[in-house]
Design a protein that fits this description.
The chain is of the alpha+beta class. It contains seven helices and five strands; from the N terminus they run E-E-H-H-E-E-H-H-H-H-H-E. Helices cover about 45% and strands about 20% of the residues. Strand 3 and strand 4 form a beta hairpin. The model has no long low-confidence stretch (mean pLDDT about 85).
C-alpha cells in the first residue's frame, strides 16, 4: 500500500518527495525508465520543473533522481515548496505528472530528445581509459554481463514511446509509492492529523 511520512527537520522550506520502487539496473524495464527519467525530471526543461516552477509557481525548484543499481531501487521526484504555497498542492502536482506519463505517455519529440541525451552521455562516459574501465566494471559487477557495456546503446535507441508508457503504468501505482513531507521545525510544526 501507499506509505506516507511527515518529518519535522531544521529545514528552511517545506519539501515534498514522491518515490516509487523501480527495477534493478539491467532489468528490461529499467531501459524505458532511464528514458522516462530524462523527460520527467532531468533539468529545467523537464516536465516536473516546467510544471511546478515555471507554470504554477508551486515550487522554488523541482527535480528527480533515480537509483538503478544491482538491486531494485527507487525513482524520486523532489520539490521545495515556494513560500506561501501548500505542500499538499505540490504533492498533488508531482503525482499528477506521474499519472500523466501513465495516461498520455511521452511524445515522439520527447523520446528523441531523451535518446539524444543518452547518446551524448554514452559517448562522454567513454572518453578516457578510466571512463571505459568504469563502464566495463559496471557491466560486469552490476549487470553481470560484460557485453552490456556496448550492447546497451542499441537497446536505448530501440525504445519506443509505448515502452515508456507501459513501464510508467507498471511501476507508478499508489501501492508502490512513498510520499515524504519535510516540514520546517521552526515554522509551526507538523501539518494537521491525517497527513
Amino acid at each position: 500500500r501507499e506509505r506516507r511520512l511527515t518529518l519535522q527537520e531544521p529545514w528552511p522550506l517545506p519539501a515534498v518527495v514522491v518515490t516509487y520502487h523501480v527495477p534493478y539496473n539491467g532489468h528490461p524495464d529499467s531501459y524505458p525508465m532511464f528514458v522516462m527519467s530524462k523527460t520527467l525530471s532531468d533539468g529545467q526543461t523537464s516536465r516536473i520543473y516546467r510544471k511546478l516552477v515555471y507554470e504554477t509557481g508551486l515550487a522554488l525548484t523541482a527535480f528527480g533522481s533515480s537509483s538503478f543499481l544491482e538491486q531494485p531501487g527507487i525513482f524520486s521526484a523532489v520539490a521545495l515548496v515556494n513560500p506561501g504555497k501548500s505542500p499538499d498542492d505540490v504533492e498533488k502536482a508531482l503525482i499528477a505528472e506521474f499519472e500523466r506519463l501513465k495516461t498520455d505517455g511521452i511524445s515522439e519529440r520527447e523520446l528523441q530528445r531523451a535518446k539524444n541525451q543518452f547518446s551524448r552521455d554514452y559517448i562522454v562516459s567513454r572518453l578516457s581509459i578510466k571512463d571505459k574501465a568504469s563502464q566495463l566494471g559496471h557491466a560486469e559487477v552490476i549487470q553481470k554481463d560484460i557485453t552490456s557495456a556496448d550492447g546497451e546503446f542499441d537497446i536505448f535507441q530501440n525504445i519506443t514511446a509505448a515502452d515508456v508508457q507501459r513501464v510508467a503504468q507498471t511501476y507508478f501505482k499508489p501501492e508502490n509509492r512513498l510520499v515524504l513531507t519535510l516540514v520546517p521545525a521552526d515554522r509551526g510544526g507538523l501539518p494537521p492529523a491525517g497527513r
